[in-house]
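CORE FACILITY INTAKE
Project code: CF-77B
Contact: R.S. (postdoc)
Sample description: multi-component assembly, two entities in total
Requested service: structural model of the whole complex
Turnaround: standard
Below are the sequence entries exactly as provided by the requester. Do not edit them.
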Amino acid sequence: IEEGDNQAVYDMVAPLHPADIAELFAQAPVEIRRPLAAAITDLMSGEVISEMNEWVREDLLKSLTGQEVANIIAQLDLDDAVVIVSELDAQKQQETLQALSSEDRAAIERALSFPLESAGRMMQRNLVAVHENMSVGDVIHYLRQNDDLTTDFWEVFVVDPSHRPIGTCKLSKLLRMPRHALIQDIMQPEQTLIPVTMDQEEVALRFQKYGLISAAVVDESGRLVGMITVDDIIHIIRDEADEDILKLSGAGDGDINEPVLDSYKSRVRWLITNLGTALVASTIIGFFEGTIARMVELATLMPIVAGVGGNAGSQTMAVTVRALATNQLTASNCVRSITRELRIALLNGLTVACVLGAGTWLVFHNVLLTEVIALAIMSNIIIGGLAGVLVPLTFDRAGSDPAVASSIFVTMTTDAMGFLTFLGLATVSGLTGA
Amino acid sequence: IEEGDNQAVYDMVAPLHPADIAELFAQAPVEIRRPLAAAITDLMSGEVISEMNEWVREDLLKSLTGQEVANIIAQLDLDDAVVIVSELDAQKQQETLQALSSEDRAAIERALSFPLESAGRMMQRNLVAVHENMSVGDVIHYLRQNDDLTTDFWEVFVVDPSHRPIGTCKLSKLLRMPRHALIQDIMQPEQTLIPVTMDQEEVALRFQKYGLISAAVVDESGRLVGMITVDDIIHIIRDEADEDILKLSGAGDGDINEPVLDSYKSRVRWLITNLGTALVASTIIGFFEGTIARMVELATLMPIVAGVGGNAGSQTMAVTVRALATNQLTASNCVRSITRELRIALLNGLTVACVLGAGTWLVFHNVLLTEVIALAIMSNIIIGGLAGVLVPLTFDRAGSDPAVASSIFVTMTTDAMGFLTFLGLATVSGLTGA
């Protein structure tokens, strides 16, 4: 279809929802994307662009001039516009900003001045704010008169004379009250103001916890400067959880549309680091070369001890990282969590030691070897369990993201300790007759 | 504070938001939770209970009678009530349902008849549906007259005479239109009807994709039976992403409030499985005992080849599992994804092989050993990359959840192939002089 007949393509795409058109681009092979865009230019609304996967979009926007990008951006809500502008390279960004109306430019530049991933970058400026002493009838009248107001709002914000938010009123409540009721009597007092500098992850947690649909964003002096709505939060919640999965495995941005070279760069860094930590384990084995030479079966069994311990560590780590990310794990229940993981690790260790011990006995008929491997795997599962909770907690306490580096350290610990306990016990127990 | 002075406790807790009270319970040590609940009985609103962590709640509800649970449930929205009832054991569930009004009981029993995690279980029945030929004024009048309608709605659903949804109208739009405008002229035609049996993950993806705030749920005959709102979706998005992290590491439910025995059961199953797959790798090493006996350094180096390959596999797997979960990876771009991962794996393999080769040369001054280890790690990174994309894709194609079992198979593959390529190459290359 993509070879020539633009009209046919256009007719097929026209009835689709903007989000579906955006998805179509991600699904289409790279070389077809630009011709496709050309065939359906007037369907390429701002909404399609802003729904697009960021890598697909970046690639498409490269072929446009600053003026063309500016035309797209002028149709968008501030928060979506900011995302797109911040993805452009410096020169294109400059051109685009020049081509915008001075009002849009000022708004975008102000948003860009806030830190990355902060509330200030996510907020929209199109919101409805009313004064506390207006009546329901006044508010409805105000809404009907002002055609240029957004329709994407679910609550009106009530502000005092110095434009500080003091409450919110759901539209459903507004509609159900008699016209003479005063806003200040029916509003809910504001409990959840979001400072412009708050991190987006924190904002998302607030929305989840209090079941918010929209929230007021305030500047340093407490004045209402914007609003964040729940539909923007949904993307953040998914992205933050995705990030944790991908960081735990060192897969970088991890988007299937990311250019190969970018993925390579972020992943190879992790693999090289992993090579370094594997060296630690390797060095430990090196100390016991004599032991292995005397009983080569040890080389066969040692990866089991290290591997299962590593797995026990990853389990605990996944639980801990997510509990930290969702603010469930705090100073007050941290000791309890460590004790909990320790108890689980003890049970797991005992069970696995019995199974592995029984298996070893059946194969080798060697009591000492059975004892050594059972004891080693039990210690290593307990070590893994402890490392899985302590490593992320330590990173979190130190102020760095526990998802990024924890898994390297946990695996290094369980590998190193697995080989050390197993080969060490084999040596000192006299198993190899030394 | 928790020892005696109930009044003081009450005064401290009273000003908190229900979600904060719920969190307080999760943070408090287990033995304090019941006395705390007793001290603040009349603050224990349905909202507090429904915001609670499920394990904490389950434990608290055990001490209540069916009648007491029913009193709590009567205050809740249907979707929250269904969650709580479904968590009770069979006998308590029966008692609770008996104690409810027949109307509530019927609604809950109907919801429970839908499959677990389906739209039918998540939906609320409190919604506002209006006829297409009503005017804006009629709708506002209807809303003002019916005091028992919910205030938790953001859109009204427009239905035809047989109660099939044909469109929605945002409240913001309703407020801005003149009273005489007809609903059918200002509504948006309905694009996203949710069948009662749709899986919650699918529902969440629709909400994300189309930026929905609420959606109509319809039964088999297309009639409007309920509504799902975005605040319920937020929890699902987080839970589903969390699940994937936890499944990938075999950590079961992975909640820090889960009882130790439950966690133990789900995790130990995984560790035992892991023991089985580790045996495969171990058996492969066993074939090469002769080789290792002749050159014990091989035992020192072999975990590096297996470990780094395993890491490369996990990276690819994390990316693939998330892309599958978010519907980004489909039949049409599956071949492209495999090629993409293969190219990244080639680059990664080349880089790591150079680094490790150089290191091996510096330590051992053995050209053949250097060649063997470089070739082995490069193959294993490529194998890991392929397994990381092919294993989850195969599970997905076969209709099972790729997050659950992929990581076991990927690790087994990279471990087994890592040992096989390294020790195999060492043997056939004549490195050990055999």
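Facility notes:
- The mean pLDDT of chain B is 86.
- Strands of chain B lie at 129-131, 155-159, 165-170, 188-189, 194-195, 214-218, 224-229.
Invoice: internal transfer
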